[in-house]
Amino acid sequence: MSCFTEVDEMKNYYAFRVRPPSQFQKKAIKTVSKSKETWVDFVTPRWARAPAESVIPGAYVTAGILKNGTWSIQSIKVPKDNRSIRECRKLALEIAGKLRACPEAAGFFPERKRRTKACP
Question: What CATH code is carried by the domain that includes residue 47?
Answer without folding.
Answer: 3.30.310
